[in-house]
Design goal:
Layout (H helix, E strand, L loop, with lengths): L2 H13 L4 H13 L1 H21 L6 H5 L5 H25 L3 H9 L4 E7 L2 E5 L4 E2 L7 E2 L2 E5 L5 E6 L4 E15 L2 E15 L8 E4 L3 E5 L2 E7 L3 E8 L1 E6 L5 E5 L2 E6 L9 E2 L7 E2 L6 E3 L1 E3 L8 E3 L1 E8 L2 E13 L12 E8 L4 E10 L5 E11 L8 E7 L18 E10 L6 E9 L2
Parallel strand pairs: 8-9
Antiparallel strand pairs: 1-4, 1-6, 2-3, 2-5, 5-7, 6-7, 7-8, 8-11, 9-10, 10-13, 11-12, 12-15, 13-14, 15-16, 17-28, 18-22, 19-20, 20-28, 21-22, 22-27, 23-26, 23-28, 24-25, 24-27
Helix pairs in contact: 1-2, 1-3, 2-3, 3-5
Length: 437
């Protein structure tokens, strides 16, 4: 395979059009070619910066007001719009950064520091320099933090004491200038504790589907490519849905979901009473993976998504191919209890060891911890690869000694199932949280 073909595979990977077989080819080439790995890491940094810039590009009013058309017409328009947005991303990245970002970039004055860090991540400064060996206490000027894996997390603390817990995979850019603090989130689960901000300089947070204005509060968010959920624990957050400019004031103990689809409900609602039981609902609870709708003969399912693990704590390695499915509750708080157990139903091509884990928040907000284990799933030849696995909460060890030894009493935020190196056709039919009688 020549250099042009290698570069094409990298481009297809970051455009999201790479096939499973091509992903395998890229994986093999990256293991053997150090130069290609360098190009891949450079492409990853550019991809993050471009996607971040895209979050500040205003949507055209004509796009917002267009009438609904047939699905075929929408597909054609969607492809054209994607091309226009890509061009806008590049032009904005080159010519149009925020003035506040520019001021911070030119001054190189520290605006925050790394308070806690664990796992695989990279900090990309304003000048484009990359630091893959972040240490606690490191000062930060404006730049982008990429958290690469489910087992990684970091806490960023601004000079005024405002803190941001980010759990991977995640990508966020921070800045602080004359207009106030700015956080752009491409993806990830965040917990923010914001100290009171001047009314003329609020903290602004932008995701692919929403913008929030914060004067001082504690809230959690989960951001993906098509929707963002906000859960406010203290104070209030003003959220604007970018798809149509609608605004919701989200008070304490309320939550809202801002999606790109204007047909979806955008309304701040009470969090509701806590529950100790939960069953995943697709596609609403999908966090990562490819959702496939069911029909009369087949149930809906979540197919694991292929991605690459690129190393840990500053040590570059030949990227490891992973296949991951992630789900998380979206309908009110789900609390873990001592006697809880998880039930995972899905399918694998054959018997294989999988990684299973979950992340939690404290019941009143704030990142709490991550817990995971490995289990070999035995597949019966007569069951068409289907499995039904139950795991007790008490069997999950914490991923770091800083986390509470037991997650009992925590709020469940997301749950993952993952295979390493091999594509086993992992599909998840459902995840349930049960309580022993």
């Amino acid at each position: 395979m020549n250099e042009d073909q290698n570069r094409e595979l990298i481009q297809r990977y970051f455009f999201g059009t790479i096939s499973e077989s091509e992903m395998g080819k890229l994986d093999e080439r990256l293991k053997k070619d150090a130069t290609l790995r360098t190009e891949f890491f450079a492409a990853a940094r550019l991809d993050t910066n471009l996607r971040d810039a895209a979050s500040s590009v205003p949507r055209l009013e004509a796009e917002l007001e267009r009438p609904r058309r047939s699905s075929r017409y929408q597909t054609t328009v969607g492809l054209a719009s994607a091309a226009v947005m890509l061009l806008s991303m590049v032009l904005f990245f080159i010519f149009g950064p925020d003035k506040s970002d520019q001021a911070n970039s030119e001054s190189h004055i520290p605006i925050a520091s790394i308070s806690k860090v664990s796992g695989s991540m990279v900090w990309i400064g304003d000048g484009g320099e990359a630091d893959e060996n972040l240490q606690e206490g490191r000062s930060l000027t404006g730049g982008t933090l990429e958290i690469r894996s489910l087992n990684s997390w970091a806490e960023i603390v601004f000079l005024d004491g405002s803190s941001v817990w980010a759990s991977g995979p995640a990508a966020l850019t921070i800045s602080d200038g004359e207009a106030g603090k700015m956080i752009r989130v491409r993806e990830g689960n965040l917990s923010l504790d914001v100290t009171p901000q001047p009314s003329s300089r609020p903290l602004r947070l932008i995701t692919p589907s929403a913008e929030a204005v914060v004067l001082g509060t504690q809230f959690n968010l989960s951001a993906g490519s098509s929707s963002t959920s906000f859960t406010v624990n203290e104070g209030s957050v003003r959220v604007t849905r970018l798809a149509d400019g609608s605004v919701q004031e989200v008070a304490a103990n309320h939550r809202v979901i801002a999606a790109l689809e204007q047909e979806s409900e955008f309304k701040a609602l009470p969090r509701g009473d806590s529950t100790y039981l939960w069953k995943s609902s697709f596609p609403l609870d999908v966090r990562q993976g490819h959702w496939m709708a069911g029909d009369r003969d087949n149930t809906s399912l979540l197919k694991a998504e292929a991605h690459l693990f690129q190393g840990d704590r500053g040590i570059q390695i030949a990227p490891i191919l992973l296949h991951t499915a992630v789900v998380g509750p979206t309908d009110g708080p789900v609390i873990l209890s001592d006697k809880a157990r998880f039930r995972i139903r899905g399918r694998l091509d054959h018997s294989f060891k999988v990684s299973v884990g979950f992340g939690t928040h404290f019941s009143r907000g704030g990142f709490a911890g991550k817990y995971s284990l490995e289990r070999t799933i035995e597949i019966d030849a007569g069951e068409d690869g289907r499995f039904d696995l139950e795991l007790a909460l008490e069997k999950f060890p914490r991923k770091n000694k800083r986390f509470p030894a037991s997650p009992s009493g925590h709020e469940l935020v997301w749950f993952w199932v993952q295979t390493v190196k091999e594509d086993l056709g992992l599909e998840i039919f459902s995840v349930e949280l049960l309580v022993a009688e």
